[in-house]
Amino acid sequence: MKIRKVEISDSNALKKIKFSLDDKTIEERLKRQEDGKAEFLILEDNDEPISYVFLKWDGKKTHPEYPDMEDLFTRVEFRGKGYATALIGECEKRAKGKGFKKIGLAANPDKNLNARKLYEKLGYKHDGGKSYVDAIYNGVEDWVIDLEKDL
C-alpha cells in the first residue's frame, strides 16, 4: 500500500475511484496543493487506485483554525478493508508534523452511517455544532456535521 500526493497525470486514476470527480475540481485541488494550501493524497495498493482525500491546511468556514479532510472517498468494492483508516492516519500524521493540535472532517449525520461509525471509532467527535448544507450534489443538499479529533 502506498500513499502519495496526487499528480496531474493521476486524473484517470482519480476518476476510477470516484466517477463523478470532474477535471475542474482536480485542477483546483492540484493548484491549492501547488500553492502549499492543501495536500491531495491518493492511496494505491499494487498500483491499483483505491482511495483519495483532500487535506486542506486552512480548514473550512466553520473551523478555519485546524486542517480539514474533505471528500475522503474509497472505491465501493474496497470499502471496509482499512484503506480509509490508513488515509486518515496519514492525514493526522502530516497535520501533527506541521504542529497542528486538531484535525477535522464533516460527515452526514444520517445517510452515511458506516463512515460516521468509522470516524467515531478513530476518535472523532461531533463538535456540538448544528448540521449545515456542505454542498449540493445533483440538486440534492448534503447536510453534514463537523467532527474533530485532538492530535
Q: How many separate domains? A: 1
Largest sheet: 8 strands, mixed
CATH topology: Aminopeptidase
User: If you compute it from the alpha carbons, what radius of gyration comes out, rounded to the nearest whole angstrom?
Assistant: 15 Å
Number of E strands: 8
Number of helices: 4
Second CATH tier, the architecture: 3-Layer(aba) Sandwich
* Principal-axis shape: globular
* End-to-end distance: 24 Å
Mean pLDDT: 94
Question: Percent range for helical residues?
Answer: 25-40%
CATH superfamily: Gcn5-related N-acetyltransferase (GNAT)
Structural class comes to alpha+beta
CATH class: Alpha Beta
β-strand amount: 35-45%
Q: Regions with pLDDT < 50 over 5+ consecutive residues?
A: none
Order of helices and strands: EHHEEEHEHEEE
Organism: Candidatus Woesebacteria bacterium RIFCSPHIGHO2_01_FULL_38_9
Protein name: N-acetyltransferase domain-containing protein
GO molecular function: acyltransferase activity, transferring groups other than amino-acyl groups
Keywords: Acyltransferase, Transferase
Structure description:
With 151 residues, the chain is of the alpha+beta class. The protein has one domain (2-150): Gcn5-related N-acetyltransferase (GNAT) (Aminopeptidase, 3-Layer(aba) Sandwich), CATH 3.40.630. It is 28% helix and 35% strand. It has helices spanning 11-17, 23-34, 83-97, 113-121, and strands at residues 2-5, 38-45, 48-56, 68-74, 102-107, 125-126, 132-137, 140-150. Strands 1, 2, 3, 4, 5, 6, 7 and 8 form an eight-stranded mixed β-sheet that branches. A hairpin with a 2-residue loop joins strand 7 (132-137) and strand 8. The longest helix has 15 residues, at 83-97. The chain is globular, with a radius of gyration of 15 Å. It starts with a strand and ends with a strand. The model has no long low-confidence stretch (mean pLDDT 94). Residues 1-151 form the N-acetyltransferase domain. This is N-acetyltransferase domain-containing protein. GO terms for molecular function: acyltransferase activity, transferring groups other than amino-acyl groups. InterPro entries: Acyl_CoA_acyltransferase (IPR016181), GNAT_dom (IPR000182), YpeA/RimI_acetyltransf (IPR050680). Keywords: Acyltransferase, Transferase.
